[in-house]
Design goal:
Blueprint (H helix, E strand, L loop, with lengths): L5 H12 L16 E3 L2 E10 L14 H12 L3 E9 L2 H10 L7 E5 L3 H6 L8 H10 L2 H6 L10 E6 L2 E5 L11 H7 L2 E3 L15 E2 L11 E3 L3 H13 L3 E3 L4 H8 L4 E4 L4 H8 L3 E4 L3 E4 L2 E4 L2 E10 L6 H11 L2 H11 L16 H12 L1 E3 L10 H12 L8 H12 L1 E2 L2
Parallel strand pairs: 2-3, 2-4, 7-10, 7-11, 9-17, 15-16
Antiparallel strand pairs: 1-2, 4-15, 5-15, 6-11, 6-12, 8-9, 13-14
Helix pairs in contact: 8-15, 9-10
Family: Belongs to the bacterial solute-binding protein 1 family.
Protein name: ABC transporter substrate-binding protein
Keywords: Signal, Transport
């Protein structure tokens, strides 16, 4: 549903966007007075996932509660009344778009929603200090995920959202896991070929709306040899050692030992660790070979981040708290309490013994492409799934793979020149 908020929000958004406030100095009267000299009464509404608001099994306070308390200690100039509601990162954009003026002052969101949030002027531009924090803490992909079509920055990441490879160390050596072809020659693997978030990982050279995912006019560009890659996938799907992971069946197969490698994200780690024990392995994505050329599998990559609403009654405090949710201290606590893998590079020592964190970090740095937050990205999902289904149903064959790929490319984008 598209809603034009420009007239309704014109003055409010214009003023807010002219004052990038995240973690900046300056005065702001807020919506309250001072309870004591130099202390401002502030009310902040916050949206966060249920898991971040739940107490630990040991009775410890929830992550969000602890972060809010820490923020208060760091900002004695505020006397804050918190109003927390449960809204997941995946649902934030939909709720903000319904009415940005009624949305929370601070919320957590998935970076692929950035374009929609900007369109309704429901996300605030980062200020100087927050931009510095963003760039110091994060790698290029994370920074790009927070970059708007205007070249400005919105939101502070606190974890990555991508997929990588789990494997059984008893089946594959460190050298084996560098090549998918080697792996499938030795043991069964599971991959969700008809999942549109995954199938694009084989089209090495695929570009989604420019290098940084912010160029709508660039569109979706497929590599010139996409037809040959499709032929490779036809052969892959026909291999007896290839299992398609339908409805996450690969996770069950991995834990049962039916397959020895499975492609998924950090959310599958606990189950696989429990099943494999000392044989548990995780790594960035392998290569594969097409017509004698080495190709790199590349997962779609995004981030989860905190942002402030420019329509907030206390935009300065809201911007500061949004940046604080993604701070080094908050990310460290997030990992300690919920095993949420941080994006902050300074926390790498925290995860040196965590193979899942290492695999995710390496994937983001080496074997991933940015999942664009532009609305045009919506054109990818259904056709990509349909193409994966067609391969599995043998509607795409070695003989017609080029023609079928041409049809897919024409539907959603174009070939590289």
């Amino acid at each position: 549903m598209k809603i034009n908020w420009k007239k309704a929000l014109g003055l409010t958004a214009a003023v807010a966007m002219l004052m990038p406030l995240a973690a900046c100095g300056g005065s702001d009267s807020g919506n309250g007075g001072s309870s004591t000299a130099g202390t401002e009464d502030v009310t902040l509404s916050v949206w966060a996932p249920q898991e971040d608001q739940a107490k630990g099994d040991d009775g410890s306070e929830a992550w969000l509660t602890q972060v809010e308390a820490n923020f208060e200690k760091d900002h004695p100039e505020y006397k804050i009344t918190w109003k927390n509601d449960v809204v997941s990162e995946g649902d934030a954009s939909t709720k903000v778009q319904t009415d940005p003026t009624a949305a929370a002052d601070v919320y957590m969101f998935a970076s692929d929603q950035l374009g929609a949030l900007m369109k309704v002027q429901g996300i605030g531009e980062l200020g100087t200090d927050a931009v510095k924090q963003l760039k110091e803490q994060n790698g290029d992909l994370e920074v790009a995920s927070m970059t708007g079509t205007d070249g400005k920055y919105y939101g502070v990441p606190y974890t990555d959202n991508t997929w990588f490879m789990y494997y059984d160390k008893s089946a594959f050596s460190d050298e084996d896991i560098k090549s998918l072809d080697t792996m499938i020659s030795k043991a069964a693997i599971s991959f969700p070929l008809n999942d549109s978030w995954y199938i694009g990982g084989f089209y090495d050279g695929l570009q989604l709306f420019g290098e940084n995912g912010t160029d709508e006019s660039a569109g979706m560009v497929f590599p010139k040899d996409a037809g040959d890659i499709s032929k490779y996938l036809v052969d892959l799907a026909a291999n007896p050692n290839f299992h398609n992971s339908s409805d996450n069946s690969g996770l069950s197969e991995m834990t049962e030992g039916t397959v020895k490698a499975f492609f998924s994200g950090s959310w599958s780690a606990a189950d696989i660790k429990k099943a494999l024990g000392d044989n548990f392995g995780a790594a960035q994505l392998p290569t594969f070979t097409v017509n004698g050329q080495t190709k790199q599998m590349k997962s779609f990559a995004a981030t989860k981040a905190a942002a402030y609403n420019p329509n907030a009654k206390n935009p300065k405090a809201a911007a500061q708290f949004a940046a604080y949710l993604g701070s080094t201290e908050s990310q460290k606590l997030h990992y300690e309490l919920r095993n949420i893998i941080p994006t902050d590079k300074s926390l790498s020592s925290l995860t040196t013994d965590d193979p899942v964190a290492i695999a995710q970090t390496n994937t983001m740095a080496n074997t991933a492409i940015l999942q664009s937050g532009l609305a045009g990205m919506g054109s990818w999902w259904d056709p990509a799934k349909a193409f994966g289904d067609a391969i599995l149903n043998k509607e795409v064959t070695s003989d017609n793979a080029q023609a079928k790929t041409d049809e897919w490319v024409k539907q959603v984008g174009k070939y590289a020149e």
